[in-house]
Amino acid sequence: MSINTQRTARPQPRTGIWPFIGRKLRSVVRYSPAFFVEVLIFWVMLEAFQQLNYGGRIITAGQSRSTLLLSIAFVVLALGAGEAHFGLYRRIWKVAGIHDAIATGLAVAEAALLITLANWFLPSDYRVWRLGVPLLATPAALIGIGLFRLLPRLISRSPASGSRLLIVADSASHPAVKELVQSPSPEWQAVGIVTKDPSQLHHTVLGVPVVGQADNLAHWLKATDAGGVAFVFESDASPDDRKLFNICLQAGLPLFILPGTEDWFHRRRGTRLRQLSADDLVGRTHRELEVEQARADVTGKTVLVTGAAGSIGAELSRMLAGLQPRRMVLVDNNESGLFDIAEELRMDMSMDVREALVSVADREPLLQLFADERPHMVFHAAAYKHVPMLEAHPAQAVITNVVGTQNTLQCAEAAGVKRFVLISTDKAVGRQSVMGCTKRICEQMILGWQGQMTCWAVRFGNVVGSRGSVVPLFERQIMQGGPVTITHPEMTRYMMTIREAVALVIRTLTVAKPRHVYMLDMGEPIKIVSLADPGADIEIVYTGLRPGERLHEELLGPDEGSRPTDHPAIMEVVSPNTFSPADLEWTVTRLEKLAHEGRPDELVRVLKTAAGSPPPQRTEEPRIERRRESRKVGDSDVT
Fold first, then answer.
1. How many domains does the chain have?
2. Predicted model pTM
């Protein structure tokens, strides 16, 4: 069966005098009713000033029928010329602003001037109005026509019946504040503005008062009886902004974020007003511009991403696709996820996208894929990551993380890949968990690599919003009515947003050296409980540390150091290479054999020995207790 791909010819617009006349007639029918109302308003104002004996010598003679018709003709022609000149018929009056009001005033003034000149040129005995009447009647006519034109806008500004919204902004003069006040939604109506600029106190924005300063936000939440809070950001959230978030969350109020106007054009889907996200609570810097500096390294090349259906792999694919590679090759064994990301890229980007339903643990299909695609660079994000689950399934962790990485490295080298980037984790530092030990073995592969390919590893901490992370977990638990689980009230993690982590991984293309491990700037560790939303009376369950978990993660091991690179957010890790290539090959073969033979206890022992794990230490775990608190908390491992 053949499919005819010939495009149907688009109908050409009709040309000629009759289609033109038809369009003009339709325009006349559409705009005539409003125009006739404006003509009536202007004519009535002129006649009123004429009858009140303003504007010159009093005319005692009655107005003839011809004079009446002439006066109406003057108004129709003059006002029509003014409105056509300033394009009033092309404006949408429901969203009228100051520019539309000025245009209306200029159109009426032009019409009054034309009427004055036409009336002045007539002989004194035949003049329609006294000489000064058109000019004297102009302000009244402008008020009448202006109110008529702006009536749709005034009706649209009728009070909303939604909940009361308090706006918090750096400055009340920010355009986004005006947008929020001027276009209220049916659910929310702005009732007050809290600003960080003390000079704006006791002023108003389109009738909404600036009630106070952000330093006293808790007071103004009560004083305005706000039902929700909208934050207007000029840039990323600062530590002070996150303190304001906590005040609102403690009051149990929903939070919304309205980004600065420069971000509106980048939001192709959804509304500009969005709810508070975990990215805002973490407060990390958006680094989309970092990616642009690596454009020359990616544009026009074939890029292969393993684990492309995962959270990090998918975001890597999106950002890399924005750098216009010649071809994107997406590798994963998750059929549905792979289909979704491939279709997303095909819809948004004009490039060749190929998906490969291949597991990195299957060497032969992977080798065939590399031979067919011949990528220029590889981003290896495929890995199992959930710490407690991998403690119970060490064989799967070794086969996917260790053997899969070795397969990918060797296949890439055989296919002539120029650059290879391994996605690692801060859990490779402590080497206490199975997952951390597998990733440390992978880092050792990079450090001891002897091939022609340039390869390096990038280590970072937990990623907010990834699959299995804390925020989606506690959101689901709260929606189900609780209880909300947390392992320990003192547990901390280094946190990044997915976008920031991926942007910096791509940025390493410009600073990385062969056979090195790099670490991203993770900032200060964050308590997991601070990512939860306090404010609801919900049951909390402390479960204690799960297998493989630690209270606190580290970025450097006791045998490691760091030094800066050309980028302030990317540090080079000075990490020892404890394996010779032959020893590493023997170790991986031994681990693979134990995994396939189903000997988990010996597998874990050999794995931790190979990774250089410290001797196990007994960690005091909290007693499991249940209590009700006025805050929501949750936890899960995130990568």
1. 3
2. 0.63
